[in-house]
């Protein structure tokens, strides 16, 4: 799990050993809530195996904002960083193997490594990448039809269609499951 991080962030081995000891491995069932909307995020999760979604409640309906797969890192970044209530719920979709670290440990690691230019740039890029994903999703709702949004998923992340239940995909697209079925049937013809 940590080999890809080691390759991404060039840090001395003795420091890596200390940092890795800050992480705890857990195995959780599908539909396990890791963070509830309104709570303060105190942990960041790295996905070794499984799938996680971030969603929020609007008038009794859950609306999916983002999906994360193996190798991904997930937290309510706003809540984690600023100690404010989370605007989202973080929940597993599949049985998952996760590694988590508490905020105090992540803060300690960041304080030590942020002065290394390569690591600082990589950290900033990682945060911006998530922001870009949010922006792309937001703009898609303004300019694309639900069918076009579905086609984007098929092109860019086909594994999502195979692994994620259709009602979550529909929620992510901003449509009902029935509408998604119509789109899929239309595309099959």
Describe the structure.
The chain has 189 residues and is α+β, with helices and mostly antiparallel strands. It has helices at 3-8, 13-20, 77-82, 103-113, 117-143, 146-156, 158-163, 166-173, 177-188; strands at residues 24-28, 33-35, 43-49, 52-58, 61-68, 73-74, 89-92, 96-102. It is built from nine helices and eight strands. Strands 1-8-3-6 form a four-stranded antiparallel β-sheet. Strands 2-7-4-5 form a four-stranded antiparallel β-sheet. The protein is elongated and about 60 Å long. The model has no long low-confidence stretch (mean pLDDT 89).
Itemize the secondary structure elements and their pairings.
Layout lengths: L2 H6 L4 H8 L3 E5 L4 E3 L7 E7 L2 E7 L2 E8 L4 E2 L2 H6 L6 E4 L3 E7 H11 L3 H27 L2 H11 L1 H6 L2 H8 L3 H12 L1
